[in-house]
Specification:
The complex is a heterodimer. By secondary structure, chain A is of the alpha+beta class. Chain A is 33% helix and 27% strand. Chain A has a 4-stranded antiparallel beta sheet with strand order 1-4-2-3. In chain A, strand 2 and strand 3 form a beta hairpin. Chain B has one domain: Mannitol-specific EII, Chain A. The longest helix of chain B has 15 residues. The chains are: A alpha+beta, B alpha/beta.
Amino acid sequence: MKIENTFLIKNKLGLHARAATVLAQLAMQFDASIMLHQDDKCAEGDSVLALMLLESSQGKEVRVVCEGPDAQKALDAIGELIADRFHETE
Amino acid sequence: MKLSELITKDCAKAAVLFTSKKRVLEYLSELAQQQIEGINQHDILDALLAREKLGSTGIGKGVALPHGRLIGIEKPIVMLLTNQEPIDYDAIDNRPVDIFVGLIVPDGEHQAHLQTLAAIADKLRDKDYCRRLRQAQTDEALFEVLDN
């Protein structure tokens, strides 16, 4: 199963090192291949370095594509994390 | 952005011999302090330690990006250390770490900070590049590897 959704980066700091780390740690938990796309760049969801390369800042939209047995669970969890500003306060 | 433009020669240290995370952070704060006048080494160390408390900056594959935000500096200070032996760093993949890219960034500059991180990530993502960093045995050799 391959599914995708687009999410808005809401936290002030964007996909900085800590946010990228939290996202990668979450992505590692699922039996799914997870890719994030922004503009013409893409990154593996479980690689902190790749995620930082997206330079996703506040207000950017990222498209998350998940494939595999846990695809739906992974997509939901990642959507929730981004919506929750990576647990950051602003 | 070239890494040799971010990291000055005296901020690239090859094959150092530290045995703990704390010692690495202390050394980075010492190096950073030499780059900026009027900033207290303890403030730099506190910023680095505070960041580690939020979660380890050991991002996996033997690499860590210890960093902190500091008020009163104008441009980021970027440092590169390679340690002789990988050390325990509570990294997210539980692997020990031997490549450290230290970052002290001005408070507030979020977009610029993301660009700096991306420039570093772009290089470190390459396994071969990391291998060359690890192989460099002198500071000069390490600096030579930076953009290659």
